[in-house]
Design brief:
2 copies of one chain form a homodimer. By secondary structure, the first copy, chain A, is α/β, with parallel strands linked by helices. Chain A folds into 3 domains: 5-48, lambda repressor-like DNA-binding domains (434 Repressor (Amino-terminal Domain), Orthogonal Bundle), CATH 1.10.260; 57-164 and 304-332 and 342-346, Response regulator (Rossmann fold), CATH 3.40.50.2300; 166-301, Rossmann fold. Chain A has helices at 5-12, 16-23, 31-44, 50-57, 73-88, 104-116, 129-141, 166-180, 200-215, 234-247, 261-266, 270-275, 285-292, 304-319, 338-345; strands spanning 61-68, 94-101, 121-124, 146-149, 160-163, 185-192, 221-228, 251-256, 277-281, 298-301, 328-330, 334-336. The longest helix of chain A is centred in the N-terminal third of the chain and has 16 residues, at 73-88. The mean pLDDT of chain A is 90. Chains A and B meet through helix 4, helix 8, helix 14, strand 12 and helix 15 of A and helix 4, helix 8, helix 14, strand 12 and helix 15 of B. The structure holds a DNA duplex.
DNA sequence: TCTTAAATTGTGTGCGCACACAGAAAATCT
DNA sequence: AGATTTTCTGTGTGCGCACACAATTTAAGA
């Protein structure tokens, strides 16, 4: 039998109102009675009935989310996860509104807009370090709980971070490449299409990647890092890589630090690709295609959908259910090859409908 | 604003009772009114409030689970997942009772016991094919929904299967071994400690493993399969393997089809291990230890915790929330190396507390 | 047409909890 | 001691829904 407040009240010889006061620490209870009630509560093993509690509270929870560039597949998947969470928590009165931004200036504008709408909680990816930290501070000043996804910042005033350990994802990439290339060859770490300067997680990945090769004894691998900017065309990329090949004839692998590995594959010739061991991120369509045709060797899954999903759920957990939230929640670094790819792409399993 | 039954009733010019009858298809509603109500419902986008609904129903859900050998780590983890689910659905009135069995005879005894207790739903792993199928039929006759975990059977009369695609896990294992061994060497597939004859999933793994090597062109690998029985000691295993090494001097890898890979490692000498590429299952303590010291090369994670967790949640979804349940839910085939191991071991992320 | 049965519709109560408010008891002040 | 404040405790209502039961309308029978 489930224990109700009424049961405790009867057992303790008081009314439900008094028990209620004890549970919610509303005060106005004499010490003796308080103690008695608490004793009975632990004795009977009382657990708040979240169902009834939620119904009675009858409150809504407005969550604001700030994402990036809505045409990008990665953020599209994140949005999907958020929608699944929204769907799953609909009956808790959760309302999620999503804004998108494209650059630091836009970021500042949208964050202001979000603050003006006075949401109950906020979730975003602090791709821009400076702006992100400032936004976090603003939220904290207004006591709005904040969840970070995708990019980890050293900010104590947040509810939690949900995403990968970027440093370790660089280590895993290095480990996989270590598998596939000969001794005394070299590896290219490529930041493709992103303003790497301000992106903390890319720097962490590079650190992890380099550290791995520095620490192993069994093989000697030279690591080169390079950035290639957004605006350039496939032809530019081709020429750029040709330059790298010439400068480093012993190059046997490329680690693309984001989801753009397909761009590398698509600008090279077959005979060039055959010699190259390529590791990238994210199960987006072109990447999977090249994985299946063996041009990309490994992909690391960043679980964008799960990031979005868990972000929302953690907010609900914290605010509505008053549960403790783990401050740092590292998602797994899934190693994906052709043979296990499908199970990550169709990963509905991760999102139980009951909520 | 959330739409309530009352809103629909007002809009359609009827009482809440009538709307209720339409929603639950209780009949006794004139066709004209029924149509009108349904129209208003879709118009306003009505969604049943699960919170209020659950509270009003005030029913309990008794789930019986049958697991194996409670000292085994794998089933221990499964139990953990079940407990997490139980915890998460406590307020829905879910009560889970777990029984353990050790052999086919015991299985039959325990299933009888379960049926006698008339549970609302049943979950178990049909390790014994014959007995499993018979149990499923019994459940079906009594219209008790049944969830299978871990071992997939071709049984249409079940609610769903949750676990890995065993065939494909054999394929992935082969792929990983393919990575690590030279041309014209051979691989041993080892069924350790289990009565492989009656275990469907072990046969599927073997099929996948063999198929992979049969289909690839780039390398020629000979596959040997062997069973080694439960009762034997480490010394027996040592002698057995020595025999295999003599018979197949070109042996370069061992695929242990269950969680006992550590037993192989622990009975061999360093110089023997150095030549061997070992792939096994499950993130149990001894396996992880050998993975970290490079004696085991890859582990495949079977997600026992998630199996247990999702099994219970799917039952709740089906019975209490009346949601559609996916009949086959394959969990991912996580490829685990030292560098990404930790994130799978501490995978609380997969179990959102909100439910 | 009136009676009775059948079909259809409306009303009331409880699920367990949160919270506002009413009420009782104790403490403080004239 | 009586009046007043302060502290403490009990009661009632609503959250949205499910379901039993009452009330009404319609159809069928005499």
């Amino acid at each position: 039998m489930r224990i109700r407040i009424k049961d405790i009240a009867d057992q303790a010889g008081v009314s439900v109102g008094t028990v209620d006061r004890v549970i919610h620490k509303r005060g106005n209870v004499s010490p003796a009675v308080k103690e008695k009630v608490e004793k009975v509560m632990t004795q009977l093993g009382y657990r708040r009935n979240i169902i009834a509690s939620t119904l009675a509270l009858n409150r809504t929870l407005r969550i604001s989310v700030l994402l990036f560039d809505n045409k990008d597949y990665f953020w599209e998947q994140t949005r999907l996860g958020i929608e699944k969470a929204q769907d799953a928590t609909h009956h808790y009165g959760v309302e999620v509104s999503i804004l998108y931004c494209e650059n630091p200036g836009d970021f500042r504008k949208k964050t202001k807009q979000i603050l003006d709408s006075r949401p109950d909680a906020i979730m975003f990816a602090p791709l821009y370090k400076e702006e992100g930290l400032r936004f976090i501070e603003e939220c904290h000043n207004r006591s709005i709980p904040t969840v970070l996804i995708n990019t980890q910042l050293d900010a104590p005033d947040t509810l939690c971070y949900i995403g990968q350990d970027s440093y370790q994802s660089g280590v895993v990439a290095a480990r996989l490449i270590h598998f596939g290339i000969p001794d005394h060859s070299s590896a290219l770490l490529l930041n493709l299409d992103s303003s790497a300067a301000n992106a903390q997680h890319l720097m962490d990945k590079e650190r992890g990647f380099r550290d791995y090769f520095n620490e192993i004894q069994s093989k000697s691998v030279h690591v080169y890092a390079a950035n290639f900017e957004h605006e350039k065309s496939q032809n530019d990329l081709r020429n750029f890589l040709s330059g790298v090949f010439e400068a480093h004839p012993d190059l046997r692998s490329i680690f693309v630090t984001n989801s753009r590995a397909y761009r590398v594959v698509e600008c090279l010739k077959e005979d060039e690709l055959e010699k190259l061991f390529i590791v990238g991120f994210d199960l987006i369509e072109p990447n999977i295609r090249h994985l299946k045709s063996n041009r990309i060797n490994f992909l690391i899954n960043q679980n964008p959908t799960l990031q979005g999903y868990l972000g929302v759920l953690n907010i609900v957990n914290h605010i509505l259910l008053k549960k403790d939230v783990t401050p740092i929640q590292y998602l797994p670094l899934d190693i994906v090859v052709v043979e296990n790819c499908e199970y990550y792409v169709n990963s509905d399993y991760a999102f139980p409908a009951v909520v």
